[in-house]
Design brief:
By secondary structure, the chain is an alpha/beta fold. The protein is 37% helix and 16% strand. The chain has a 6-stranded parallel beta sheet with strand order 5-2-1-6-7-8, sandwiched between helices. β12, α12 and β13 (320-324) form a beta-alpha-beta unit.
Length: 396
Amino acid sequence: MEEPLKLAILTTHPIQYFVPVFRLLGQKKDLQLKVFFGCKQGLDTLIDPDFGVVYQWDCELTDGYAHEFIGSGSLATLKKLSSVALTQKALTVINQFQPDAVLIFAYLPIFITISTLLLRLKGYKLMLRADTTDGAWSRSILKDKLREVLLKLYYKQFSFFFPISIDSVTHYQRMGVNDNLMQMIPYAIDVDFFQQQVDHWLPRRVELRKEMGIKPGDRVLIYCGKMYETKNPLLIPRALNLLSDELKQNIWLLAVGDGTLRNQFETLSKAELGERVIFVGFKNQSQLGKYYAMGDILILPSHWETWGLVVNEALQFGLTVITSDKVGCNPHLIPSKDRGYWFRSGSAIALAEAITQLCNQDRVAPNSNFSLPHPSDLAEGIYFQAKQQRNLTKLT
């Protein structure tokens, strides 16, 4: 009788969007899974410099699958040279588990990078799932060249890759990764969890909007996420300033989240819409449904976004979305104008035009759902490739 397939996953810390994948893998009868976390970030109350508030996730992050914590500090500890000591522990505990394959999430921080190299030297077959694209803030030519050289060397340590998007596939191709060593699997939210919120909150949409004073014909713009420079939330009030007074009379802005730009964002928005601006602060995933249910249009104006998971969330609630052309999920989730618009990043004029066009449509928030990426897509891909890796001779 064949021994159960053994898969180790190495990642920095528990992340709510990855947990459904781990649980699905943990349910497989012929798979012995163990997830190794570098630190305990996210389990306790913490301060996020981008959110600018103290918060704690309200969902269980470690239930439903076998796991082990290698370190007990914060994510910051994994970025320090001192984390090299933890990489030795990572190698020891993973080696004790004796997996057939190891899936690595990300290529940074230094803890992950060095752990990867040590595991490869030990002969393990490695697979990679990471936020890898070529689009980002502009770098100097020297930094670009150095990054390219180092990443090409790093990628040679892996036997298989799970790109998150078309941009990610292009990045790997440019770095010399063979197409037959890749399976693109787009980012997913916990679709089943959010469907429970859809079923609970959408039937109360009219009631919720009425409680806030929102009239049936009004359009509610939603901003959901951190309020800091990369997300570019201040572009929204700049765009609102360009709308006609007649149109603005029927527009609301509902902002969910917090961050360093919150006060400025709120002040500038109220200067345009007055009392039709609602800022509710940071909300956990279990609380988001109430606000999506009230909305018509999600706006994500980021300067750069590797994917943009709030788009997944908004689409599941039937919202139309407006995103900048720097949002990675665009070709996957918004391939046509029936789901939303892309606009030129940084252009208040282009954003204002998109808002105007959508707000003047008879039907803003379609109720029809479509097939969103599901956590099972990645879980099944990982499971299949782990079996393939076991069939390969372990490198020595």
